[in-house]
Amino acid sequence: MTRPAEGHDPQPLFELIEVEKVYMVRRPGSVFSTAKVGLPALDGVRLKIRKGASVAIVGESGSGKSTLLRVLLGLTRPTEGRALYQGRPIDEVRAEGREFARQVAMVYQDARGSLNPRMTIGALIAEPLRHFAICPETDLPARVKALLARVGLPAEVADRYPSALSGGQVRRVAIARALASEPTVLVADEAVSGLDVSTQAQLLNLLRRLQREMALTLVFITHDLGVASYLCEDIAIMYLGRIVETGPTNAVLNAPAHPYARALRRAAPEFFAPITEPLPGEIPSPLDLPPGCRFSGRCDRVQPDCHLSDPALLRFGGPAANRAAACFYPLTESPTAPQKRDIHA
Amino acid sequence: MMDAAPPAVVPTRRPRTRRSLFLRRPFFTLALIVALGFVLCAAFAPLIAPYNPTLQSIEAMMVPPGGEHVLGTDSYGQDILSRIIYGARYALVIAFFAILIGATGGLVLGTAAGLTTGKVEWVLMRLIDSILALPSLILAIAVIAILGQGVDKVVIAVGISMIGPFSRTVRADVLQVSSQLFVEAAGLMSISRLTVIRRHILPNIAFPLAVQITVRVSEAILVSSSLSFLGIGVTPPTPDWGLMIAEGRGFVSFAPWMSGMPGMALALLLIALAIVGDGIREEFDPKMRGGQ
Ligand SMILES: Nc1ncnc2c1ncn2[C@@H]1O[C@H](COP(=O)(O)OP(=O)(O)OP(=O)(O)O)[C@@H](O)[C@H]1O
Ligand SMILES: [Mg+2]
């Protein structure tokens, strides 16, 4: 479950508190100077992920989704704020040993790049099995075969190299490999995008079954709202490094509160259908954010004071207490408190 | 892959792919035959050579090519063909061991420089840079100046002079491979750094290293011959091509075969090795092979 600010659940599995991640990049257009400017890939992200939850993270390209995953996995340290796993800083938990690595598995956006080209598929899947001592050495081949079967690949694939597999097959191998360590959390970056509809459906069914049966916690990045609503109870919509709306997927998609969420929803009218009309305007560069609300430049409901300060992600009152949006003029029930000016602006 | 194909396809496909490599690259095939010829000469020199390569004869001094001495004799009456055949032995053996030293040193130094950061990397990089600052021949001369002459010294000198170029390419490959996602993924799985290096990084730099070796064999031969030509490599009367070219230099105007024949042998071997190296690289480099 994703909630802004304080939640009542005992202890969330993952908790991001005002996480910021600033990449230092060369100032664009400067060929000779080495002056660096900060690029805020994440800017004040608050997110709680309960055990057993399934969270979809959606947003345009460059909105910071992959960066958010890297912070969750402890691959990058946030420049500001705290990233916690069971109440303790993620990099500390990671440094302690392999337990975190076994519990939290990752499916990369670039599945082919995440597989060593000089190892066979069998060796690639056996690697985590052996590393985490999941099963005795003699059971390895059977276990590899079972994992391959689980993602719908024939056993012969085990002797091939990744270069001899198609993009969709490589994606399945990456999923099989992630499942090998019997994780409790699966983090997937665009794990099913770019696949044909039937393959996609097969993998989505597999993931949903695993999620139900093994109480897998799922953090799923996708561009596809249909995938998000099929697989995930909760959704977090990102825009330029900030979560602009969170809540139960169906509630958010049926009645979006943030104008950006509505625009995304409108752009994808049917499940599994391609995007029909692009959002108006260009996504601004994170190096050059507009003043005030970062969506104000593209918003069709923009008011003069939207340009003055940045709205915070605040919870709704009343029956929709599990939803939150970062907008001064949300489309559905207004937040309980009148929107305070964001201290992070 | 093969066994998945219908049985009728298998017999027709196999020979075609095998034949095509040699048919498609006639120069490669020719060069390979020439290079293998030199290797055979080196291996079976005592059986092939018509004369003892160091047998001097006052009756047969500076005999022109043809007749009893196919490629003529030199100013000591030594048979040039026999000396060239034995010379192949020295050229290839020196190149082999020099490459062994260069590639091993380059692998260690380049891998270390590619995997470390901060001060250690700085020191290693300056070390590699300083080796690279001197051309291989100059560096080899410097080493010879310290060690003295002889076949073993030439091997060491040429080997050391090759460490620099090998380290540079190995380091570049290590950096390229370590930035790949599968290395990060292994780290994410909490696989220890040493295992990641052994299992994921080194196997991926082995192929480019093998290509480097085929390309650099000819350089090693050239540098070792140059040392002998300059008179600081192997000592006479060893049948070394560089030495033979140097010895014939004074007689070029009236006995051109004395320098010309070993010179041609050297040029032929270098060209053949270069073509073979290029062919191997183009044929087997995964990056050039396309997404097969
Ligand atoms: N290592 C890096 N160095 C500098 N900038 C980076 C780096 N990684 C990401 N960024 C920048 O951070 C921003 C967010 O990137 P991120 O990869 O998180 O986007 P994303 O939402 O995953 O996009 P996509 O859907 O295309 O994968 C982008 O503007 C990107 O240019
Ligand atoms: Mg991404």
Task: Explain how this protein is built.
The complex is a heterodimer of chains A (345) and B (292). By secondary structure, chain A is of the alpha/beta class. Chain A has a single domain, classed as P-loop containing nucleotide triphosphate hydrolases (Rossmann fold). Chain A has helices spanning 65-72, 90-96, 98-103, 121-131, 140-150, 167-180, 197-213, 225-231, 249-254, 259-267; strands spanning 14-26, 36-49, 54-59, 80-85, 88-89, 104-107, 185-189, 217-221, 234-239, 242-248, 314-315, 324-325. In chain A, the strands form two sheets. An eight-stranded mixed beta sheet of chain A has the order 6-7-8-3-9-10-12-11, sandwiched between helices. In chain A, helix 7 (197-213) links the parallel strand 7 (185-189) and strand 8. In chain A, helix 4 packs across helix 5 (140-150), helix 4 (121-131) runs parallel beside helix 6 (167-180) and helix 5 (140-150) crosses helix 6 (167-180). Chain A is globular. The relative contact order of chain A is 0.14. The model of chain A is unreliable at 1-7, 271-275 and 334-345 (pLDDT under 50). Chain B is mostly helical and 292 residues long. Chain B has a single domain (25-49, 70-284), classed as MetI-like fold (Orthogonal Bundle). Chain B has helices at 9-24, 26-43, 45-48, 80-115, 118-133, 136-147, 151-178, 181-188, 193-229, 241-248, 257-284, 286-289. In chain B, helix 8 packs antiparallel against helix 9. In chain B, 40% of the residues are buried. The interface between A and B is medium-sized, with 26 and 19 residues. Adenosine-5'-triphosphate binds at residues 23, 25, 39, 41, 59, 61-67, 109, 286 of chain A. Adenosine-5'-triphosphate is lined by residues 23, 25, 39, 41, 59, 61-67, 109, 286 of chain A. Chain B: The chain crosses the membrane at residues 27-49, 90-115, 127-147, 217-234, 254-280. Chain B: It is a multi-pass membrane protein. Chain B: Belongs to the binding-protein-dependent transport system permease family. Chain B: Keywords: Cell membrane, Membrane, Peptide transport, Protein transport, Transmembrane, Transmembrane helix, Transport. Chain B: This is ABC transporter permease.
